[in-house]
Write a structure and sequence with these properties.
By secondary structure, the protein is an alpha/beta fold. The chain is built from 9 helices and 7 strands, in the order αβαβαββαβααβαααβ. It has one domain: Rossmann fold (3-Layer(aba) Sandwich), CATH 3.40.50.150. Bound molecules: S-adenosylmethionine (SAM). This is Ubiquinone/menaquinone biosynthesis C-methylase UbiE.
Length: 256
């Protein structure tokens, strides 16, 4: 039986470049909000170094359990994973030099209210930086991509059905400005799928299938996970070239 690693999520590709450049330095106290399995928490912990400290919060007990057993990066700050609901008042967490989050604000019922609460626990001059994604009429490629398009629509429709705001990324700069932050960096990077690389999409579809079914967006029979990887591969081979799959919006701001 093969134990091949599934392809890495290409939506995380811009994160390292971006979060490495927002100004996190050794010794800082950093908060990662909606940390999930802690991938970004571990990255910022390495930036903060052994003299720093990271608090990583999420409401999901299963994600936090995964995060707590993952291997730390070398020379990292210790990470304190805590179960916190960002839609509610925050528990006592202390003040932070930097607050980061990736793909989390779009899931919150009132992102502006959460940003205000986060700002109140940011030290003066602290950095606040987010990576969010938006539904943006993709994917696009050299010719029609009906299966890729279908998967894209199912994915974003599921987020909408769950109450997520799929265009929040387009309001991210305004939200941070309204919260009294000065924008230091704002950019958007395309997430590309290259022909010849193993596709991440079957992994994404399998991970999202229970949510898609729960929300009535599609059925297991319609998505047919057993043949999906082959059908995606075939569509890519037929179309060739690069597929623009998604957009990552990356905004860093400083608290006044
Ligand atoms: C798409 S995942 C991203 C995880 C992680 N930031 C990453 O990029 O790998 C979204 C995360 O936001 C968390 N989340 C959603 N709503 C939340 C809330 N109200 N309070 C805390 N966490 C929340 C989910 O539990 C999930 O772990």
């Amino acid at each position: 039986m093969s134990h091949q690693q599934p392809p890495a999520n290409p939506a995380n590709t811009p994160s390292q470049r971006f979060f490495a450049g927002i100004g996190i330095t050794p010794g800082m106290r950093v908060l990662d909000v909606g940390c999930g399995n802690g991938d970004l928490s571990r990255f910022v912990a390495a930036l903060a170094g052994p003299a720093g400290e990271v608090v990583a919060i999420d409401r999901g007990a299963d994600s936090l359990a995964m995060a707590r057993v993952a291997d730390a990066r070398p020379n990292s700050a210790p990470i304190d994973y805590r179960q916190v609901d960002l839609a509610e008042a925050l528990p006592e967490l202390g003040k932070f030099d930097a607050i980061v989050g990736r793909r989390v604000l779009m899931y919150l019922p009132d992102a502006a209210a959460t940003i205000d609460r986060l700002r109140s626990i940011a030290k003066p001059g602290a950095i606040i930086a987010f990576q969010e994604h938006a539904r943006a009429g993709l994917p696009t490629g050299l010719s029609e991509l009906p299966l890729h398009r279908q998967l894209y629509d199912w994915t974003w429709s599921t987020v909408t059905a769950e109450g997520g705001e799929v265009t929040l990324a387009l309001r991210l700069m305004d939200l941070l400005k309204t919260a009294g932050c000065a924008i230091e960096d704002a950019r958007c990077e395309a997430i590309l799928l290259q022909s010849g690389d193993p596709s991440f999409l079957p992994t994404l579809a399998r991970a999202m299938l229970p949510r898609m079914i729960e929300r009535g967006v599609t059925t297991a029979a319609e998505l047919d996970p057993d043949t999906l990887a082959d059908r995606i591969d075939q569509e890519r081979r037929t179309v060739g070239g690069t597929i623009v799959w998604d957009l990552a919006f990356l905004v860093a701001a400083r608290v006044g």
